[in-house]
Amino acid sequence: MTVAAPLPSPARLSIGVTGHRGSNPPFTANRTRIEAVLDGIFAVIDAATGAEPLPLAPTRLHSLLAEGVDQIAARAALSRGWHLIAPLPFGQRLNLAINAQPGSRADAEVLVAGAEPADMATRARAAAIAELTGKAHMFELAERDAQITALLMDKLDHPADIDRAQAFAAHSSERVALAGRVMIEQSDIIIGVWDGETTSLVGGTGHTIAAALELGAAVIWIKVQAPEDWTILRAPESLAVPAPIPADERVAVLEALVRAALRPPAGGLRAGIAALGQEAWHSRSSRWWTAYRRIEALFGGEGKPFRSLRQIYESPEAIATGSGAGVIAAAQALPGGDAVFAARIDAGVLQRFAWADGISAHLSDSYRGGMIANFLLSAAAVIAGIAYQPFATSEQKWMFAGVEFLLLGAILFITWLGGKRRWHRRWFETRRVAEYFRHAPIMLLLGVARAPGRWPRGADTAWPEYHARSELRALGLPRVAITPAYLRGTLAGLLDVHVVSQRDYHLAKAEKLTRVHHNLDHLSTRLFQLAVVSVAIYLGLKLAATLEMVPHAWPHNLSYAFTFMGVAFPTLGAAIAGMRYFGDFERFAAISEVTAEKLDAVHARLTLLLAAPDDALHFARAAELAHAADDIVVSEIENWQAVFGGKHITVPV
Predict the structure, then answer these.
(1) Cα(639)–Cα(628) distance, rounded to whole angstroms?
(2) pTM confidence score
(3) How many CB atoms sit inside 10 A of residue 387's CB?
(4) Is-contact 144 618, C-beta < 8 A?
(5) Are residues 317 and 243 in the same domain?
């Protein structure tokens, strides 16, 4: 069956913006200059993306659409044909009501109800926000709207009460910080228009910039007092000592930042994607490369050790109605969910997972099966070379030497083939791609993503991470209002199901690999013991013949047989020990056991959270648990790659 690789999505640059509101005095004083600098930076970004040889989708700008910098940047982005994405800290109507800054409860209630307020200034601010939200793709954090609305009304009812004002400010700032985190995770570069005064105000511009730097995002800092002297911050420490960029170097530095966001620094993104697309799809595993899995079957204690080990790989076209059917159904059943987005998960994630998973499984068989075959062939070659002694004459030795020669040649051929076809490296790369996509639907539906600086990297290549990130970025945020019902459906129907299935898989894997390790260890020990016994018997016979307790001919007649056993048993024992060392079954069992324990802890937390009433079901908690599960998956990938990283296919010496 011919199965084509899923076509890569066009690369896309994603920008986030944060900045002061119009009430900030330095911003107000320099607004015209700031607008000009922003427009100039956008022009450089446009030119840099336009010069890229890769096919690109329109740039995205993420903005919370607050009055001030957010709206200025949003309008500038729309004028350039960019896509405007709005991760709102509240539901759309409450967000409008808060950002329109009503002075009375009556105006606030009208805005929340979707009508126009009486106050003209409030109405103008509301109209400006409504205009932009009508053009934006919105992701609304609305699960706390009832509580925040109550705090807003209470504050407006008691305008002189500082405690009520602080309560509203604290809770609403927390929501803004959450939306800012979503923006950071979805962006390659953050643009911050900031006075540089403080990073301690939760949800404020300085706080968002500091959070972006902690998460590994590059920040273009436009200081409101001197906007033309903008610079680029790359680490949290740069807030203490920002390094100015000479005016004649700014454009080149910004262009390099855009290029780094669109492709990996070495090798180019297209090279990696092309390599994945050129992989030949196999509908099933090869019967010639199952030696590693045969060892697991023989020593794993699961019964039927000689059963067929051929695997049928699920094709990308079949996964939506196969193993991925539950994910698609759960995504489409989410209350208030984005049905279009849920449908896109099939082609955008599941099919890519199926392709990479099938390719990786086939390469795994080739690499690990080839290495196990080398160990077995090595032992067989030694045994064949000496087998003429008990079974033939010296004149017939050439036949056994010929067999030994063929076996040694097979070892060299497998080693050459594995190196030429890069089985080891290709397995690593495709497995990383598959595992990033495995957990992705849950992250996408929650609007949660791995932040720019939190992606791992292989020792010699970065394209799997860039490819996965690019494809997940192509889907972006769903067009939803997050509600308690939506959160409950995502956590119960998707995240917990995934966590429990992965936990159970790793528990079973840990048990099986532990048995494999102990059984291999037991067999290799017994073979060495047999070698000792055979040598001891021969020496005993020799001593007995010397003492004339047995005929003198016995040791001489049996010497070739005992020599053969003295070589064959330790050779087989060494081969078994080598396979045990190569497979590192005990260490992989420990990795799976730790992974299962971590996943079980996440499951326990999910159980507690799902038992809570709707008013205690918060997006922050759900996002944290999704991140925790994702971190466990990535940690497991890094651990097994650390084990196998230096075990290239080679001759078994």
Answers:
(1) 16
(2) 0.91
(3) 20
(4) yes
(5) no
